[in-house]
Amino acid sequence: MSIRIGIDVGGTFTDFLVIYPDGKRRIHKTSSVPSNPPMAVQIGLAEIATAENKTIEDFMAEVGLIVHGTTVTTNALLTRNGPTTGLLTTEGFRDVLPMRDGTREEAYDNRLEQPVPLVPRYLRQPVAGRVDYKGDVLTALKEEDVYAAAEIFKANDVESVAISFMHSHAETSHEDRAAEIIAEVLPGAYITKSSELLAQARYYPRMSTAVLNSYAGPIISSYLSTLTELLEEVHFSGILLLMQSNGGVATPGELAKRAALSLLSGPASGPTAGLLVTAAHGWDSCLTVDMGGTSFDAAVVKDNKPLIMTDGIIDRWRIALPMVDINTIGAGGGSIASVDEGGLLRVGPQSAGATPGPACYRRGGVNATVTDADVVLGYIDPDTFLHGQIGLDREASIQAIKNDVADPLGITVEEAAFGIYQMVNVNMATGVRDITVRRGLDPRDFPIVVAGGAGPVHAGAIARELEIPILLTPRDSSIFCAAGMLVCDFKHDYVQSSNQRLESLSDEYLVDTWKGMMAEGRKTLHAEGVADAAISYVPSVDLRYKGQWYEINVEVDPANLVSPNIAEFYASFHKLHDTLFGYSTLDMPIDLLNIRLTVVGTTPNDRVDLAATAAGAIPEHRRRDIYSPLQRQMVEVEVYQGAAMVPLDEIEGPAIIELGTTTIVVLDEYNTVVDKNGSFVMYLRDQKDTLKARLDLS
Q: What is the pTM of this model?
């Protein structure tokens, strides 16, 4: 066996989890380099090698696998720092992109401005030619229009082109020919054919997804090219895999083809990692919350699977590729606190990021941030932050909060810091409610798995706000997504539009459609080095009641791949509809919109073992003052060294558990016990007997 490394490039820190052949682990964090994200990977690997007294070349020679996730495409999209992109569309439908699906995001907000399209109108070029919904060619493609559009693209230095024609999912020849012409006139341009990327009905979602893919394509391709070169320079000869937004991994070549799947690459592994933590107690469902320096991500795991969505929104634009359902909000340690013109406290979504960072970082930041509030409240020790790698300046935090919040509101610095803490906690709790309640789920039914460097500082307060009695914080909380990447399988998704009544669906047609997808999936996985024995299939269908606007994705038994049981489709849809909307109509006809298949290739590597290796008694504790939300004052508490705590060790709040890369704040109402995996389980003390009975601590 060789060394395996999970790497998560975030907006503030780049996280590394190194797994050695003997099972030992090394956690490392380094500051991200927003101007050159791959550089942070190289810097971090060099720092790890130095810590082992090796050259980076000697260290990398022992590495057999790197699994990597990044937010580089997301950040480029949010800042509009991407390539000049062109769009070919059917004549008469030039403005579908800005019109979107014709609905308003906020029905009662008359001041809400429409987002600026990623492709300006002069680069949205119409092309004559028409195909009907059945795939019959009504009007031949006018190639002169494509050539004319290509010349316009060339004159405007267009780097990538999306091609999206009406009903191209039913007949691809027009898009295929247009792509050939674009490649001829613009060699080297990144080209997305909507029919190849997403073979399903509904023009706007397909067009928007194709545009997002083309916008992200050159960014992720350039990133991967630079990263590959950097790894080659240090003689890395192992396997490099990239995290996808659907919760699976892929080779760089495959991800470059479906670049839009990199838009949630970073946090997509978190829900899978959550199962590693809950499995110790026999639970197959949980909420995962990940609070880093820039953002807060919440997701749901139910029945051993992260929940998937096919109607996601990225920067207010629709993306219809299957993605892990993650609610991301601008709430992190670097979120900036301020007082608006109306005298109200606001926290985020603006972030101080890695540069200049919070005021306490001593990097030139002057704005008050959540991290500054945590320092003032005593939750973060300036001397032990990140194992002391970054000495924090508490006085700078005090001054920033005084200038930005306390003085404008006429309150003390301590009160202002607690206000920041409360505000960001409420924002994050709302984010968790959004992702659960809209799926008909009660957040109180799920334990929370806490991740991120800032997550354990705030998780107790979030849980209290949501009335959730149990939280689990793994020892690797601060690099949780990096750990999750090492347990994710290969995953590729396929879809075929099929607009018809479910009652008229032919078994033969359904089986033939799935067979074609299975063959394509096997071919892709074989190219990625996955053998047939490691391949499995997850079929599903998109269904809706007659006359409904939105469909529901319903997963069905894999046995349907060879012998369809349509009665199962009916029963599953009615049940899921009742869960989501509170009713089902058994006598209403059901429409089939899309046939889907997820092809999974199980990764051959050993799973990450989260079992604790720490041993020995808890050393003498230090004490320090922290702010107690219950008592509304600073109180002196015990500070425990988490690395020395072993299974069954238990403490009462209020208290602090320091882990070097993060801090667990145990609030007054909670106890914390270490489970057999070494995770820290926080539970409400007044429900001690009931809650401990749910835990497997043996």
A: 0.81
